[in-house]
Amino acid sequence: MAPASNLTLREAAVLAGVPGGDVAKAIEHKVIRPAQGAARMKGGQTRYVSAHDVAYFAAIRRAGLADLPVRHKKRIASRLRAMGPVLAPVEVAEGLILDVDRLAAASYVAALNYARLRDDWIISDPDILGGLPVIRGTRLSVYALAGRLSDGETLDELTGDYPDIPREAFEAAQIFARTHPRRGPRARRAPGAR
């Protein structure tokens, strides 16, 4: 059974290493069909895709198949969605096999790991920093973390400051900050500024 659709469109683009426009185009052409669901942090609704969709984008990019006809792209995406947790090659057309497992396994696994770490370690609580997303067990917002990293601090230094938090949680928080830009009047300030 395919993993649930639980990655935002921006998360999928970043994890697959493709521009957001590629994701939008795939949705427009009905290659990818996102699920509508409640937004994770601020309420409202948003669209979600699965790790299999991340594998689709990564495989298309790495194989250089951006100009592949839409009917073939739909076939690849459909076959991927029907796969279980292990990726396998996909027959695109007679005699044309796309080695999705070789081309996209790393992106697929990264997407699954990111979603798990995000759900385990990134929380939004109105009583902590007014609901800004923070790393569980800390008052460190994902935006402050991104600011610290962009100011030259390393993940090793962060894990030294927070020894109970695994390095992977900081990596997930960094991706989360990138894919969920801060909005509102304070968003214009430097990422690490208070």
Automatic annotation (TrEMBL):
SUPFAM superfamilies listed in its UniProt record: Homeodomain-like (SSF46689)
Pfam families: DUF433 (PF04255)
Protein name per its UniProtKB record: DUF433 domain-containing protein
